[in-house]
Amino acid sequence: MDYFEYKDGRLFCEDADITDIAGAVGTPFYLYSKRTLLRHCDIIHRALGEVEHLTCYSVKANSNLAVLALLAAQGIGADVVSGGELFRALKAGFAPEKIVYSGVGKTEAEIEYGLGQNILTFNVESIPELELINDIAGTMGKLAPVALRVNPDIDPKTHPYIATGLRENKFGIPHAQALEGFRLAAGMRNLRVIGVDAHIGSQITELDPFVESAKKLCELVETLKDDGISIEQIDIGGGLGIRYADEIPPEPSEWAGAIVPVLKGMGCRIIFEPGRSLVGNAGILVTKVLYIKRSGDKVFVVVDAGMNDLIRPALYGSQHEIRPVIRIDSEETVVDIVGPVCESADFFAKDRTIPLPGPGDLLAIMGAGAYGFTMSSNYNSRPRCPEVLVEGSTFKVVRERENYEDLIRGEHILVD
Ligand code: LLP
Fold first, then answer.
1. Residue 156 falls inside a structural domain
2. Most exposed among 17, 40, 154, 225, judged by the fewest C-beta atoms under 10 Å?
3. Residue 78 C-alpha to ligand 1 middle, in angstroms?
4. Distance between CA 21 and CA 14 in Å, rounded?
5. Is 268 one of the annotated active-site residues of the chain?
């Protein structure tokens, strides 16, 4: 459940009237609900209550500092995939001993940064990465805590671009080579092998892939134990889907109910890396209708947000619900909702039946709290839009709208 609801035909975020916020900050803008964020945090925490666990929020989903700080204050940890994300996580107040670092392409500088900050774990994705971490830790006089990310070859039944645990994906060490990888790691002087890890994909709406992955990790922990390698921590990644259109993802309690029994008896601390399920439905993108354009028998609703602001429909064909911010009674019309960017992929909805809005009307693109702003860009030299956080009836701009000067920061004209 979220806190975006109509009151007398006007869409509110908690107790704040979205039309008023638009009047104050202009459009387009991202809007996040604090109450929803905290609620999702609490739901996930309670669902996992039966096992010793640490939730490490996947920062890539929404890395706004205010959002991160809110989550950090709940005592959870963070899952980061770059030096930049580690920097943000630390700035926002996540404790280093609650930060895990994932990703296939960690650089030397990033590894040094993580080691220097004494983070909880490096989720290591290849043998060469193990060797590099071992070398750097040696030079720094540190013992690097590592988990090996295995690729369990499980079909998460999601969009191919966000499936990560199939054999052909670049992620993790193939399950069949895992034992060999762990033996190698255990023999390296400057590593402390503490965990196993897997993340099989994102926007997963079925339980089976999670259960299968958890079982494979538990089997691996047993095999390693027989081999003399004891494991303290099992990281099962993130991936729980949310409802965008008509999908029916499992509730966090159902998801936990399926995996907790598998993991419970292992004597290990369980790490979870949820991203989307924490923040996805806590955010929307608010945009204004610029024109209604009729071309042949097509009707285009041209809005002031573009694919540079929210790329998910263009990249994954994702279906975001789109609501009028003030309910209208106009004729139901089949429209394409498109942005101003010079690409035919710049759309938010195709052949969607909605009450026809008029120029100046506001639309709310729902479920935009995850992988929305974080995937935005300056394409077409469009300044990135602001992010606004609502708490009760008050709102604060937590990232300002970029201006034209921001667009050219760091660029140099070379004059002969
Ligand atoms: N852990 C790791 C190692 C990950 O790679 C990811 C997401 C997560 C956790 C969090 O997954 P979540 O709980 O959010 O599903 N841009 C795409 C999603 C890409 C997900 C990448 N990895 C989208 O907009 O759907």
1. yes
2. 225
3. 13
4. 12
5. no
Instruction: Name which residue sits closest to atom 23 of ligand 1, judged by CA.
Output: 371
Count the neighbouring beta carbons within 10 Å of the beta carbon of residue 60.
Answer: 22
CATH number, domain at 162? 3.20.20.10
Domain around 200: 34-276
Q: What pLDDT tens digit does each residue of the chain (416 aa) get?
A: 789 999 999 999 999 999 999 999 999 999 999 999 999 999 998 998 889 999 999 999 999 999 999 999 999 999 999 999 999 999 999 999 999 999 999 999 999 999 999 999 999 999 999 999 999 999 999 999 999 999 988 888 888 887 887 778 888 899 889 999 999 999 999 999 999 999 999 999 999 999 999 999 999 999 999 999 999 999 999 999 999 988 999 999 999 999 999 999 999 999 999 999 999 999 999 999 999 999 999 999 999 999 999 999 999 999 999 999 999 999 999 999 999 999 999 999 999 999 999 999 999 999 999 999 999 999 999 999 999 999 999 999 999 999 999 999 999 999 87
Q: How far is the CA of 47 from the centre of ligand 1 (A)?
A: 20
| Domain limit, last residue, from 276, 295, 324 | 276
Measured in Å, residue 141 CA sits from the centre of ligand 1 at: 33
Residue from 41, 56, 218, 342 carrying the catalytic annotation:
342
CATH number at residue 25: 2.40.37.10
Q: Which tokens is 74 given?
A: 């709940």
Count of CB atoms situated within 10 Å of the CB of 209:
21
Q: Which of 228, 257, 276 is the last residue of a domain?
A: 276
The two beta strands, 332-338 and 298-303, are parallel
Residue with the two structure tokens 């109450």: 35
Q: Give residue ranges with CB within 6 A of ligand 1.
A: 58, 61, 79, 102, 162, 199, 202-203, 237-240, 273-277, 312, 316, 370-371
311 and 381 in one domain?
A: yes
**Same domain, yes or no: 137 and 228:** yes
